[in-house]
Amino acid sequence: MLERMSPDLAQRKQAAVTILFLEARYLDDKEWDSWAELYEPDAEYWAPSWLDEYDTADDPNTQVSFIYHDSRSQLQERISRIQSRKSITALPLPRTLHMISNITTSEEEDGLVVARSNWTTHIFDPRVQKQYLHFGTYEHVLKPSDGRLRIARKKIIIMNDRIPSILDFYSI
User: Fold this and answer.
1) Is residue 72 part of a domain?
2) What is the DSSP string of the chain?
3) Position 1 in a domain
4) Tell me, what CATH number does 99's domain have?
5) 143 near 149, Cβ under 8 Å?
6) ∠ CA(13), CA(14), CA(16), 5° rounding?
7) How many domains does the chain have?
8) pTM of the model
9) Which segments of the chain have a pLDDT < 50?
């Protein structure tokens, strides 16, 4: 059965889709300051590791994560290190292409919108002249802020977690 949506809900759902596509474009274009501005100041950015073939970590404070940042300032600190050219693991930077699909949204209490999607990132690493592919699922929790939605939480499940190259925020 198709759900009937109020105009406000339809607008929030379209805004959620737009944020996911903008985020991918900002990452691919290396517009990382614009990318970070999509996040709330206290946003959580988390890529949990797999505990076994069926379960991922569920607590970033006590279990291993591929990446975990608990604020936008931590994301901005990582961006600064890359832009300063002091992060030799990212020189030269790989080229990326993020693909987002199968986006579904639901509205939670307090106006939060949860967007789930599938993603693929194609990566070309010029250091070794090789290409890689990462894929998985995203869960974005979006919060109304200053008249627009911002990312309050992003959880990234990496399905192919045998990672043959460097893993960073721009590659997932």
Assistant:
1) yes
2) -PPP--HHHHHHHHHHHHHHHHHHHHHHTT-HHHHHHTEEEEEEEEEEPBSSSS-B-S-TTTS-EEEEESSHHHHHHHHHHHHTT--GGGSSPPEEEEEEEEEEEEE-GGG-EEEEEEEEEEEEETTTTEEEEEEEEEEEEEEEETTEEEEEEEEEEES-----S---GGG-
3) no
4) 3.10.450.50
5) yes
6) 65
7) 1
8) 0.90
9) 1-2
| pLDDT in the model for residue 162 | 79
For residue 2, being part of any structural domain is answered with no
Q: What residue numbers bound the domain in which 50 lies?
A: 7-171
Give the pLDDT confidence score for residue 165 in this predicted structure: 73
pLDDT at 20: 97
Residue 116 lies in a domain: yes
Q: What sign results for the dihedral spanned by CA atoms 2, 101, 119, 72?
A: negative
Token pair belonging to 16: 């959620």
Which DSSP string corresponds to 41-84? EEEEEEEEPBSSSS-B-S-TTTS-EEEEESSHHHHHHHHHHHHT
Residue 125's pLDDT is: 87
Place of tokens 């992060």: 87
Which pLDDT value is given to residue 1?
A: 43
Task: Tell me the C-alpha distance between 8 and 3, whole Å.
Answer: 14
